[in-house]
Design goal:
The chain is mainly alpha-helical. The chain contains seven helices and two strands, in the order ααααββααα. About 45% of the residues lie in helices and about 10% in strands.
Length: about 210
Amino acid sequence: MARPRQSSGPGAPHLEANVAELRALAHPLRLRIMELFAESPKTTKHVAELLGEPPTRLYHHVAALERAGLIHLKETRKNRGTVEKWYESISRTMGSLPDSGRKRGSNGGAKRAVAMTVLEQSRREMVNAMAKPGAEPPLLARLVMRAPAAMVPTLRRRLYGFLKEIQTEFECDDSTPTADEDERWAMTLTFAPVWPTGSRATDVQKRKA
C-alpha cells in the first residue's frame, strides 16, 4: 500500500515510487492524468476535457492512481445537485532520487515499465511537435561524456538541481488559474551509462585485439 506523503508546496515533495505507484503509472494515459492533477486541483471531468477524452474512460484510471497514493481527494464541492470531487497529485516531480543508490528489488520490472512509458510518451510528443509547421520547435539533444565513476553522483545531483530550478522558475502557483493560451511543454531528462562499460568494455577490447 502506498505511504501517504505531505505536500509542502509547488515542486515538492519528490515522488518516491513503490511497486503499487509504479504499476499505476505504467500507462501513458495515467501518466498524463497525474501530470494534469499536478498543475492544480481538478475534477476528473476537467482533466477529461483537457485530454479530449470522455470522462467515463478516465474514472477507473483516476481510481487506480488514488489507490496507489499518487493523487488524493483535496475537497468536494456541491454543484447543481451533484458533488464534484477535486483531486491533486501528491508529487509534482517524477523520477529517482539524485543520490539514492538503492538496491534493485522486486519492483525492477515495474520501474522498467514506467521508464518505457515515459520514454515512449516523450517520443510521441517530440514527433508530433516536429510535424507542426510554424510552431516553436522542440529541443532534442544527446550528450555522451567521459567522467571518473566518483564524479557521477555529483553530476546526478547537479542535473537534478537544474531541473528543480527550472520547475520553480516557470511553474505557476496553485492559486494561479491556468490561462487558455498557456502551452504545456514536457522535459524528459535521462542520465544513464552507455554500453559497453566496465568488464563488458574489456571483453569487447579483447575480442578486437
